[in-house]
């Protein structure tokens, strides 16, 4: 029995070293060697400062930026050290209340917007960090952002197209627009034109 | 709707196409017949045995195999428990997280050694990099290897005749890890990083917002972004049907599952090894059609349920439709459907499919919030677990349980035609039937008794988030998930309470360490038996008839056990009128 215990302990420790030290360190080494940008969080820098990650959404509420999806993280929306969803059930009155409030806010902010509101703009995402909105949700906001930002709707739609990712091979996934990248493109224009308290400060 | 069929068909066919050669490779690994992997890694493997004082050629009786398997799992549990309790002062803790409290550490240890990966914590705010890497990730490998060892040993019961031994547990564990899990994870992890998953040991990054905002009267000017060695853990999380995510949001988190493409391959990865084990089974019993028959039964059980779930979630929420929210699926514009708790890049149908795959195996990973699924989609998740995780189930355990169902099906077939039942040339006698029944019935007992205890105690009821039948579903789901070693959750339930830590921890341990021992006993008994040649009255177990019988047995056992309880949760929620506090807008 003592022999078996020793065998168990030794095999366990050797497997811990293989799977818990050698394997992750090899992955880290290769990742840092071949894909350092991705391995370190796809960070976006401006003027030497990190302004966000291309994969992690941020909260926007100024009319001259595109707004991201509602986020259920706490204590602040898009809290990237506490990811999570609302977990509200589909028939929970709380969920319906939230959706109604979001509809009111959007209708007030986008009086010129046409048609029904795309669902992803009034529902919170699974991670609370969704970097994307649907193309429909971006187009819905175009009149507001164009008006507030002093940019033509045509240019604005082009910017949306530039930041759109279609489904892989047209089959896998859904059409999305990366909100932070789109807003960074807008931000650059505002800075160049010296409009809007430019940097949004 | 066509998109739903197409996506489901693509995921399943790619998983089958990859599992086909992998099953053959596994046959080489576990029979010890030389392959390229042996030549490269054999010195490492033999070094392990030398250091441990193990003779790899010595077989073990089922009792010895089971005992050492338990010992290995116990060592892992104690190691993980201590690692979490002492986390604060150990290295690789840049965020200075404190020690994990004992109830949570017990629950997490039980959960990760058993391939359950039920998580009562949120990784990025609780666990140090060392705990994740040396604790969660290690157990994700070892619990998967333990599951595979169970299946391999059980299959030897059928493939061997007049033998006492069913293999050497140390060899099976070592080979699963070195030759199968590590190489596959390495490739998969690098692909994940290429797509955007992170892999570093940096402290959390502070990003300066281009548009600061106010929240509760305070100005928010920066976003703190959690970091860590994510991809290496993510890879084995799916391949080993574990499901324990690095972050709280699991596979919904962009750093775990950055693109639609990674999501697609996460789904393939979940089914890969369970499917490959079915192929391996065919190789090992020297009749490939047997493996394909089991695989066909798994796929035929899974597919309609997955399609139902996808369709229900894509149809969207009626209460939102009443508010004139646009939930339509429009190619090139919007995924649409029930988007609460769903990421835009995956879409509602893609999330429902992921949910079905994660619950049909013991994975329990989530790329969306299952608590916000439409009632029918939530019910599919529940029912796939309640079928006993056999469609195709966790790595190893799924196939082992499916073979137990096959033994019952053969027995029923034998009763119908009045012949002694036999399966793969082995007589199925009362001992085998007893062991198979014992293995199958432990889970429903744990789920139903556990749920009854939880709904009748204040500690069980207080943790619920959503009102009405959905609240019952949250409790029922928690016990179902724990007792099936699945690990997914309806996240609204506050599971990090002493009550839930203990009750789910116990269900996890009792199922994992009671339900599979009878199957090893059955394997021991079968291995001792003579092989008899098939006669005119032998039920062909690779025929469509038998596949149908097997599906019938799985469905019958699952339905009889769980339909009454399902009626109180998701069925009631689906049929109930919307609550009066959510008036429908007149237009």
Automatic annotation (TrEMBL), chain A:
InterPro entries: KdpC. It comes from the Bacteria. Its main location: membrane. It is a single-pass membrane protein. GO terms for molecular function: ATP binding; hydrolase activity; P-type potassium transmembrane transporter activity. It is found in: Cell membrane. Keywords: ATP-binding, Cell membrane, Hydrolase, Ion transport, Membrane, Nucleotide-binding, Potassium, Potassium transport, Transmembrane, Transmembrane helix, Transport. GO terms for cellular component: plasma membrane. Signal peptide: none annotated. Belongs to the KdpC family. Part of the high-affinity ATP-driven potassium transport (or Kdp) system, which catalyzes the hydrolysis of ATP coupled with the electrogenic transport of potassium into the cytoplasm. This subunit acts as a catalytic chaperone that increases the ATP-binding affinity of the ATP-hydrolyzing subunit KdpB by the formation of a transient KdpB/KdpC/ATP ternary complex. The system is composed of three essential subunits: KdpA, KdpB and KdpC. This is Potassium-transporting ATPase KdpC subunit. It comes from Acidithiobacillus sulfuriphilus. The lineage of its organism: Bacteria, Pseudomonadati, Pseudomonadota, Acidithiobacillia, Acidithiobacillales. The gene is kdpC.
TrEMBL record, chain B:
Part of the high-affinity ATP-driven potassium transport (or Kdp) system, which catalyzes the hydrolysis of ATP coupled with the electrogenic transport of potassium into the cytoplasm. This subunit binds the extracellular potassium ions and delivers the ions to the membrane domain of KdpB through an intramembrane tunnel. InterPro entries: KdpA. Keywords: Cell membrane, Hydrolase, Ion transport, Membrane, Potassium, Potassium transport, Transmembrane, Transmembrane helix, Transport. The keyword Cell membrane applies. The system is composed of three essential subunits: KdpA, KdpB and KdpC. This is Potassium-transporting ATPase potassium-binding subunit. It comes from Acidithiobacillus sulfuriphilus. The keyword Lipoprotein does not apply. HAMAP family: KdpA (MF_00275). Belongs to the KdpA family. One of its GO terms (molecular function) is potassium ion binding. The chain crosses the membrane at residues 65-86, 133-155, 176-193, 264-282, 291-308, 395-417, 438-457, 499-524, 545-568. It is a multi-pass membrane protein. Its main location: membrane.
